[in-house]
Amino acid sequence: MRESVTELYATIEKAHGAAKRAAAVGEAASLGTARATPTTLVAELWELWGDGRALVGRAQRELLVGTALRRQEALVASAGTSELLARFFARYGSALARCGEGASLTERECAVLRVGADYRAVLGEAALVEADEAAFLLAEAARTGEVRLPSVVAADPVDAGPGMAALLRQCGCADAAGGEPFAVGGLPAETELSVLLAAGSAAAPALVLDELRRARGEGAATALVCGPDARSLYDLLAPSLVADGAGCDLRCAVPWGETLVGRAWTAVGRLGSSARPAAAATDFAYNALSGMDGAGARRLNGALRGDRLADGAAAAALLRAASPTFAVFERLQRAFSASGDAAGRTAIAADLQVLAQAVREARGLAPVERSRELASAAAVAELAEAAWSLGVPLADAGALLASRQVSVNARAAGRDGVRVEFAELDRLASLLPKSYDAVILADTTDAAFPAAQTRTALDGLARKLGLPTPADALERQRRRFRAGKDAACHHLALVVTQRTAEGEEAYPAFLLKEFAEAVADDARAAARAAGNVDEAAAWDECDEDAFGLPVLLLRGARRLGEDDLPVSVGAAFAPVAGRVSLRAVRRGRLDRLDLARFLRTADEEGRAVIVLSPSALELYVGCPYAWFLERRVGADAPDEEFGPLEKGSFAHSVLARFYDEAARRGIARLDDACAATWEPLFEATFDGVAAEQDTLEPGSGRLVALTEAEGLELARLRSQLRESLHRQARFAPSFAVRAHEHVIAAEDGVDYAGVRVNGRVDRIDVDEAAGRFAVIDYKGSAGAEYAAAMGDDAEAPPLPKRIQGLVYAQALRPTLAGLHCAGALYLAYRARTDKDMVAGAADAAVFGEEPFVGRSSVVPMNFDAYLDAVEALVTERVRRLYAGDIAPDPRFSGICSYCPAVGCERRLA
């Protein structure tokens, strides 16, 4: 009777494939032959001959290593440390307990061994055993005759730990590691080679699609496309392939945190830890698993961004009301962040089932996406089961979620039997020779097949302990590359990308050079054998523009440059077949809109007069296009901020209330002599306005400090206003405050330059004795652009850059009967010096000697005539408004500073 034989393969997929192939060809020798991996071999033998302990799973291992880590202080007890040590302990099993005598170890290395001892202890308490330890025990039992082992033959090189190596020796497989150095080898027999030269990464997908279509046209029914980013290739090419009738499969792994389940989970967690929860809540709302439509997500986003005081609890309440799945994610996230006791296990398990059902019912998910999300939800359930089985808190399992990789194995049906599989490069380890009609290695750069050996501190510890280290990185890459090329029956294509996605020069994999040399050597030998010396010599010529590959190897190579854009992007990956002519669009030209019909107007004797505030009029005069975007389109973000606008609104409120309260207390004018009286009043006023901010509605311009830094900014504003009041006490001593926040309504019928004025004057100061008034407009700062800038020798005044104060001054002249206007001034409450506090237009006869008013702000002419002259200049600009002119025409750079048209060709630096 033939002895039972077990063939050992690198992966279980390869083992199953070998079994199917043997059965398909009817190999008699396959009878009595089992096919397994090192892991499945140990599992089968342990189930038969083991001592009753179960083999530990990955999730259980990481949880128990985490438990052991928390019992010490020498190593950081993080999820990353737990994962790293778990792989180390899985490879070396109990061998760590039987070695290390006399080794010179560091304190950290000793700490690793102590954690390993604690891990083995908790492993024993849980009635679990490492596979490598089980293999060692089986080998020992076989040596004493207690266990009967099968004969094992290594069909693939096996990278075994010490226990597995001992077991394989007892099974008669002493050289499972591979022995001889591995060679990439040349081109397999009956296989055609194609080299696809892509100028950059954007050009590679089009070349791959073209190669797949060519292979299919030559009868290929199965094709494999392998690359480091299989998901992107699938997303780009699958629509075109499915349209051609081919079925498409995807096999890849994605980080759990990048799945919809992981992103929704993370967003819920961020709600409780973020001072501004709008981003987290919006991430959840736009997630396909939220169950919300786009309009609902936008409403929620606007509501939260417009309310700085909305905290995580408020955002969660909005999501509970709008999303049918939020409560499930919330409960699960809370359970995996807390102790997660056994009493809640039934409820948590029910929520996990609801989560999986929500994935199945989610709208708009492609089959690949649904497969990925089901695997993501299953990863959560797997960790929960592992935690429950070990009696550890669910929080320990939750900490491992971020490092989880989710396997995607999805299949999309085709109509003609042709199948194209997209897979990551790890798939190469599972391939059998001649298993696909066509194989395309979509990336042959050194980034895809790195030859550099990466070693960790744990590898150094293993060497000190005399333990077998993993196979050389270059050898592993050789095996992968060779498996990929040998898997092709008829077509092998290698994509050679010359530049990275960042535009940097790419470098070919060392294995590509080895393969090219092997192909050249085989071709030279064949040519010499045929007596063709010239052809043999021709293989020595290389193309330096193609990484030095042999010219003959590149014969027939297909090339695509990224300048061939239509062929490199899009669903069709084909040159443009036609075009549509569109009328040229001119910025600032309204072809189909009568602008005046969409503006607020007032009727004046049958004529529609446009109603504008002085600030809007100033903006239009400064640049019609900036006015259109800011005031008509409303291109502002919906966010409530703690910025200049809110600070300005707050300062206006404080100053207005302060002066009103001072007037009620009989303080007609501030001066330093009565500072002891008005300073406490200012402090109380500031405190009162600050206290009211919490009660104001979102979007009202409220100023609420939410952080320590914002609190310091608010304190700074208090000091700036206090300092400004001391300066105001010394400014224009003959004037006193008459009114604050004086309203000019459209119904009052006040016109300026052809438009109806509608606005609110910050402050009106009056010199009763001299019969004159000045308009005061508060600004945070008032630089040179606020000044009238009229020279002494000017024949006519120029149009000032800032006209808001001048508009108010002219509008108030008829209403303040008997008072002469002496100035339209801007008062900077954040000024650091006296000379920086006041700017604008001031009557030289009144303010000519005022130390706070600079020369550029003094008007050397009759001030009433000056106001009339400026209005006439503004009237010329306003005529354009009635004509619907919104063309970009900035008068100075300050207008462009905050304009949303960042790409405007008229934008001033």
UniProtKB/TrEMBL annotation:
A Pfam family annotated for this UniProt entry: PDDEXK_1
Domain PD-(D/E)XK endonuclease-like: 612-901
Range of residues in the leader sequence: none
Keywords associated with the record: ATP-binding, DNA damage, DNA repair, Helicase, Hydrolase, Nucleotide-binding
This protein's record includes keyword DNA damage: yes
BP-aspect Gene Ontology terms: DNA repair
Top-level taxon in the UniProt lineage: Bacteria
GO molecular function annotation: helicase activity
Entries under InterPro entries matching the protein: PDDEXK-like_dom_sf, PDDEXK_AddAB-type
Designated name of the protein: PD-(D/E)XK endonuclease-like domain-containing protein
Annotated organism of origin: Adlercreutzia caecimuris B7
